[in-house]
């Protein structure tokens, strides 16, 4: 984020700058989203939505997820969040107690570690390299000593910063390991839709106990609109609803309107 701030400062100064430090598409939001926002601005007071999100948007996310991956995704299990970042905070708070251990790949997205450590969680690195396409494996989890067995496992596919995709069979093995070891699989699927040839799987294909994190930011080119979602198992819905009510009340209403149209 320091580099991103530097980019913005250089641009304000009128200096030519090519930004390579943030996962931000160069295109704008879909035209249908802009049209919907224009109409809503003139027709609505834009008050709070439901805490779990605009019902129509939740249904659209569920329909898209079900159709894309061939899994049953009830709208009741979808929660709209303030970007995927808000989703991570809510999910971590709902799943973890202070001092719990979380396993994640290294190299990986640094914000996970920052959020987790601020919440008092302990991070265990799963050191990845080209041999596993910079993705974690179930064997890495199985090899952890007892004191490092995680309460949660984070998988990011396509990866950040690697851009690599986890093999669906390996994701299935990790999902089974998590179920067998009473760990929660948290699958960051923010970059889904942006792949070139390799098949993409959602964690929900392999476990209905997995937590899926998604966003409009990447594939739909809507980074600044701050709309993401969680797909949750039943037992996490009430905790996340209570957290969302205290942390954000709801994701931005006008952005949810745009999301419905996107």
TrEMBL record:
Signal peptide: none annotated. The keyword Nuclease does not apply. One of its GO terms (molecular function) is transaminase activity. One of its GO terms (biological process) is amino acid metabolic process. Keywords: Aminotransferase, Pyridoxal phosphate, Transferase. The keyword Transferase applies. Belongs to the class-I pyridoxal-phosphate-dependent aminotransferase family. This is Aminotransferase class I/II-fold pyridoxal phosphate-dependent enzyme. It comes from Corynebacterium marinum.
